[in-house]
């Protein structure tokens, strides 16, 4: 837990609150904070039904993509689905393979090796697929920057249909079709689909074109997993896709997910977006980080209970290994960074860092220091780096300023990666430091917390929590509402967890007592004294077969 800047969002006008009927004023305030201006918008947000979904044929390139795939189905061509090694890419690969297989297509999945191949299309891999008789490659969650690779594939007689959600470069690959909601001139109303979301729209369009009913109940669980794992905003169409996917994950999870739930100690039927973010997604990502992503794909696709159990147990062990290694990398990187003095951008590298963990380490450093971070796996000739950033600094834009240095690079404003000749690293470091120093000058480099409303603890009873849950699923773009209560008495406070890294509290105000928990706040125990101002979410604690409402403390400080 880092102490943050607190920002109480503006109070809704009295006329607005008066016009919202059927909800407590507290919940109406949250609607206002989410930009829901009218009762109709609120009704649509809560309903989260298919009206949020646009026609897949409105995606740029979709007509060409469906035409080329249909031709492949008719002539019995061998189709490869070329994905990525993260949870979004894995789920997207599984979804398209599953969708095409149900149409009796000859289809082969391909997931690249993170270290040996890296993200995106590789000419060597495409050549091997062509040698194996593949004549059509459908990419998912990658390909939009593969200009040279697509050009070479065409010379091989290999057609490429690209489906991606990343930001295109100025030059678009000359593929048989390019489907990406972020393409210039796109008519699609929602640009923030995950890679698996675009993949779903492809299969939806294909079934629609063939006049067949789409087996949504076999696909939307994958969309929910990949969308939440890739931290896409849970707004508009993503909100519908994730909500429906969560229903499937809770009602009838596929074998592999069911075994993952058991191994991870989750409560079946109680999964929410946070369970995906903190438990399922890290496990699916683990194999791609440490070895190869294929076992995670196999876990999603298996029809064998025995194989599902074996793979999920192995995944649990690998996840524990990944956690231990990440702690080690972060500790070493932190030591290097603090030895040099904390700068506006944090950069650390080492030959012993596992390439699959540098992104996680960068994320941890950014969370801890609230600065953009770059962690690099150093190689003798070539090095690979991963970047994480803060809202005040666009890391992709910073990389783009020195694009001539990279062998490859790409990503988003908050997360990016690159491959670079090791000899060019000093120039890159200098460039990034100069950019960050200039852009972050005068910025208060502390995280900020948006607070939905200031309340007394007694106001949170009754139907407040059920009403708030109507806004779920929560996540990026639709955060779990945060509340501030001032002058709270700390009736009890003790550490919990194996290393005492968390706090468990009993909090009292106006005669009302609540249980509270503050994760990663064990070091702040001495600060948790009465009277206390607290910022928190409401959450349900499922423990020992019981479900109990509690406060999840995001930050606290002594009352003035």
Account of the protein in words:
Helix content is 40%, strand content 21%. Helix 5 (87-101) packs parallel to helix 8 (195-210), helix 5 (87-101) crosses helix 13 and helix 9 (220-229) packs across helix 12. The protein has 560 residues and is an alpha/beta fold. The relative contact order is 0.10. Among the domains are: 5-12 and 448-558, Beta Barrel (OB fold (Dihydrolipoamide Acetyltransferase, E2P)), CATH 2.40.50; 56-217, Alpha-Beta Complex (inorganic pyrophosphatase (n-terminal core)); 342-439, Roll (Diaminopimelate Epimerase, Chain A, domain 1). Helix 5 links the parallel strand 2 and strand 3.
Please summarize what this structure is.
This protein has 560 residues and is an alpha/beta fold. It is built from 18 helices and 18 strands.
């Amino acid at each position: 837990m880092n102490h943050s800047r607190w920002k109480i969002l503006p109070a809704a006008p009295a006329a607005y609150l008066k016009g919202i009927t059927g909800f407590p004023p507290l919940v109406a305030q949250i609607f206002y904070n989410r930009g829901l201006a009218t009762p109709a918008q609120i009704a649509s947000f809560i309903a989260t039904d298919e009206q949020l979904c646009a026609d897949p044929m409105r995606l740029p390139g979709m007509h060409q993509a469906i035409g080329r795939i249909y031709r492949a189905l008719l002539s019995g061509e061998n189709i490869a689905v070329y994905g990525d090694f993260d949870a979004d890419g894995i789920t997207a690969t599984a979804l398209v393979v599953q969708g095409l297989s149900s149409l009796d297509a000859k289809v082969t999945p391909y997931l690249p090796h993170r270290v040996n191949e890296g993200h995106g299309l590789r000419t060597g891999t495409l050549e091997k697929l062509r040698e194996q008789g593949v004549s059509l490659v459908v990419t998912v969650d990658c390909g939009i920057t593969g200009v040279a690779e697509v050009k070479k594939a065409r010379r091989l007689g290999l057609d490429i249909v690209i489906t991606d959600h990343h930001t295109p470069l100025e030059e678009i690959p000359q593929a048989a079709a390019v489907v990406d909601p972020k393409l210039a001139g796109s008519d699609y109303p929602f640009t923030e689909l995950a890679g698996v979301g675009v993949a779903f729209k492809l299969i939806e369009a294909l079934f629609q074109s063939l006049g067949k009913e789409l087996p949504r109940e076999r696909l939307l669980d994958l969309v929910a997993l990949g969308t939440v794992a890739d931290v896409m905003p849970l707004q508009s169409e993503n909100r519908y896709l994730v909500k429906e996917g969560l229903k499937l994950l809770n009602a009838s999870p596929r074998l592999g997910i069911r075994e993952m739930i058991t191994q991870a100690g989750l409560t079946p039927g109680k999964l929410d977006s946070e369970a995906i973010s903190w438990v399922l997604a890290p496990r699916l990502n683990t194999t791609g980080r440490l070895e190869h992503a294929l076992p995670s794909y196999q876990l999603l696709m298996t029809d064998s209970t025995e194989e599902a159990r074996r793979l999920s147990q192995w995944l649990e062990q690998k996840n524990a290994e990944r956690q231990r290694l990440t702690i080690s990398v972060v500790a070493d990187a932190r030591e290097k960074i603090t030895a040099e003095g904390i700068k506006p951008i944090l950069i650390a590298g080492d030959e012993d860092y596992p390439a699959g963990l540098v992104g996680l380490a960068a994320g941890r450093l950014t969370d801890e220091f609230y600065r953009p971070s770059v962690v690099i796996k150093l190689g003798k000739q070539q090095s690979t780096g991963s970047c994480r950033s803060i809202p005040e600094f666009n890391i992709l834009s910073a990389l783009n300023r020195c694009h001539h240095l990279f062998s490859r690079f790409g990503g988003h404003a908050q997360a990016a990666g690159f491959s670079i000749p090791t000899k060019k690293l000093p120039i890159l470091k200098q460039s990034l430091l100069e950019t960050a120093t200039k852009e972050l000058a005068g910025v208060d480099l502390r995280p900020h917390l948006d607070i939905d409303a200031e309340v007394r603890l007694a106001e949170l009873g009754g139907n407040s929590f059920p009403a708030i849950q109507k806004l779920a699923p929560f996540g990026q773009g639709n955060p779990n509402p945060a509340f501030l209560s001032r002058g709270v008495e700390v009736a009890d406070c003790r550490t919990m967890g194996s290393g005492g890294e968390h706090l468990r509290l009993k909090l009292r105000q106006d005669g009302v007592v609540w249980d509270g928990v503050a994760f990663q706040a064990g070091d702040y125990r001495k600060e948790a004294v009465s009277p206390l101002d607290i910022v928190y979410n409401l959450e349900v604690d499922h423990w020992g077969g019981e479900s109990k409402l509690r406060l999840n403390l995001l930050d606290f400080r002594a009352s003035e």
